[in-house]
Amino acid sequence: MDKRIRVCDIEKYYGQKDTLIKVIDRVSFEVEEGEFTGIMGASGSGKTTLLNMLSTIDGVTAGHIFYDEIDITEMAEDDLADFRKKNLGFIFQDFNLLDTLTIEENIILAMALQKKSKQDIAKTVQGLVQRLGIADILHKFPYEVSGGQKQRCACARALANSPTLILADEPTGALDSKSSRMLLQTFETMNQDLHSTILMVTHDAFSASYCKRILFLKDGRIFNELHRGSRSRKEFLSDILDVLSLTGGDLAGD
Known about the structure:
It is a single chain. This protein is α/β, with parallel strands linked by helices. The chain contains 8 helices and 10 strands. Strands 6-7-8-3-9-10 form a 6-stranded mixed beta sheet, with helices on both faces. A 4-stranded antiparallel beta sheet has the order 2-1-4-5, covered by helices on one side. The N and C termini lie far apart (about 40 Å). The mean pLDDT is about 90.
């Protein structure tokens, strides 16, 4: 069975009864296995809140989120922690690497928690670092490598346990343009060669143009949706900018 994610009519409120703020307003969509989907919208549109609910970091006020047939909105906290560890990979803007561990040890950490054998861990690490172009920095510490290399280490760590879904929150936000391009090309490799399912929140149209599909949020609702199809990345970028001009999103380009 395909590992499909279904978001069904979810809502999210913050505050008390007299000061309720609706951040997510009856959002529904699906993500098929192997999709590379972007979520865009202006600041305050609900992008990060949506990602937090998909990642089980935050709960829904109403509605349901299914991973295959598993409804994560009905799970107990202990079960959620176990689900998160086994099924989700995270890539953040600020890398979230441990400075006291080498690049290799940072990648291994996620697998060590799963009690995998040393042989399996070594084989997985070698395969990932070769694909991501960081085999030559394994014994360095995070403070000794570039931002782009740190982020590719974070990608390897996210992929280490073959997650159902990789969640990326503004992954190029702390990178220069060259490192951003390299990271986005890494995402393409992860998606096309490793068939990783990726959901990326970004305010940047250039980053979004690497996706196969974009969901645009406005005031907590899906305002528009774009599929790249057979268009070139440059053509897709132009279409993304057109939609962002309607949503009030940042017009960040190349």
